[in-house]
Amino acid sequence: MSQPLPGTALDQLFRTARTYNAFTGEVSDETLHQLYELLKFGPTEANTTPARIVFVKSAEAKAKLGPALSEGNFKKTMGAPVVAIVGYDMRFFDKLPVLFPHTDAKPWFEHRDEANLAWVAMRSSALQTAYLILAARSLGLDCGPMTGFDNAKVDEAFFAGTPIRSNILVNLGHGDPASIFPRSPRLGFDEACRIA
């Protein structure tokens, strides 16, 4: 039976975790493998798992990414040890015979129009981005997720000739506390929720 996590774990994952604007340190390839091995277990629609991730580490890859970044995101992204480009595979349904083996789920998606497929793929890859953030935090990394970039430029630089489209970027490393602002307010339960 699952037990609630201790307060220290909840702090690391949620309460004291922050979105950082500057990072230090290095992130090993082994850590990135560990991160994926955690995030892959998060649920997605019909286990479609459409996220496809490029972990940008090298100077050459960062040079390809740089022109796609908004001015406000350029410096912090170029300075991050790793930038995860989370994309989504528009042909995610090709993997369903393996990923959803108990029934033939491929026909549920393969004949849908592109806009509908994009909605399914984007929604589940956004879920997978959240799992990536939680997995990274659980491994002692800090994150800086963002959508302030030119998707078309990222797609051309990293996914040309494939059915993959970019969705979200996440800077990864060890956050510099001097780079964060005081925590912004959050809505209270009664403002955001109701029990029906």
TrEMBL record:
A molecular function (GO) term: oxidoreductase activity
Checking CDD domains in the record gives: RutE-like
Q: Which InterPro entries match?
A: Nitroreductase, Nitroreductase-like, Nitroreductase_HadB/RutE, RutE-like
Tell me what this protein is called. Putative NADH dehydrogenase/NAD(P)H nitroreductase E5S66_03025
Please give the cofactor(s) recorded in the UniProt entry for this protein: FMN
Return the Pfam families for the record. Nitroreductase
> Which keywords does this Swiss-Prot/TrEMBL entry list?
Flavoprotein, FMN, NAD, NADP, Oxidoreductase
Tell me which family the UniProt entry assigns to this protein.
Belongs to the nitroreductase family. HadB/RutE subfamily.
Q: Where is the Nitroreductase domain?
A: 16-158
EC number(s) per UniProt? 1.-.-.-
